Amino acid sequence: MREVRRALLEADVNFQVVKDFITRVKERALGQEILASLTPAQQVIKIVHDELTQLMGGVQAKINLSSKPPTIVMLVGLHGSGKTTTAAKLANMLHRQGRQPLLVALDIYRPAAIKQLQVLGQQLNLPVFTGQPNQKPVNIASQAVEQAVKTGKDVLLFDTAGRLHIDDELMTELETIKTKVHPHEILLVVDAMTGQVAVNIAETFHRRLGLDGVILTKLDGDTRGGAALSVKTVTGCPIKFIGVGEKLDALEPFHPVRMADRILGMGDVLTLVEKAQATFDAEQVAKLNKKIRKAEFDLNDFLEQLREVKKLGPLQQIISLIPGLGNIKKLKELEIDDKELVYVEAVINSMTRWERQHSHEINGSRRRRIALGSGTTIQEVNRVIKQFEQTKKMMKQFVELEKGVKGKGKPVPGTLLPGKKGKSLF
To answer: What is the pLDDT of residues 395-408, one digit of tens each?
Structure first.
């Protein structure tokens, strides 16, 4: 339980929330039967995982879309929490689902806030309603609703100005907008990096406005998302979305089970799979599979796969989603530089077509030319070729192993799965 407490505090969960949580887990764990397949420690972790999932809502919460359009969604929060970008990301997500969103700029206080929303709207090819100069936010909101009805927009996204939860005047302005337009959803946008401070913020906004949900931003940083647990516990409001990057498609539905995995450092393999499915082309994967089976995998294919991996996001983020790897101390301390992939790409691009297909025949003079052309050293060229040859060898072993398994279950020549005293498991 001490390790669990430490994991939660390191994940920036509020101290009081941790204290209550540990008490509940102890009550549930004491006297419980231990499953035959688990050790007592594993049983406790299972209870912790289940309790965490329940604390965060148990199931995925979605936006409540009105049966009579337009659905009005109001985004509120502190300065710099990412409301404007989140509004654009949410509009992008809804548009992909077949909705017709209208972005509404209600932040008349921050310089260039309206311009920022207009630029994001242009990037997504979505309309932005701004109102007249020197107009009050409540009047802009009313006109935006009329505009949405006229133009057939079915979702209105209000990007309100950032404000401190202790600023009574600006909080009253939000209450006035709520009374005037009756939003179907009021979502609090919280920066995950604020950690325990998020509790006080959420508490005040919920008391004044009656929140319907929370969007947690900047979860691609160092934090594991403990703020998610704290906010949900204090307000009782479900977390509906999480922001995991700067790009306009980096908004994901919130899954309590996956966040419980992430807080406990167990990775999030389902999110990784979904990212891969959205990124990789099924036809390309099939072609690659064919090449690997025929032992035709070359540096052109290697380069193509590196580019696909880059699309998934920062390498450190990908590693954190893989169960087990996120908790390895050496990997935590290791700063993985995504620029390394740029150097690998430069080395391969400096090769001729023949060299990419015959990497094992690249001699010393060719390596010198490749190093010169890519702006790297001969040692770096050697490292890229070695990495490729190791990848190719590993793929060959997997294919041979698969053939052996599908055959008569005999040992596969040249492959050895670790068993007792170095013997093959087959």
So the answer is: 777 677 666 655 54
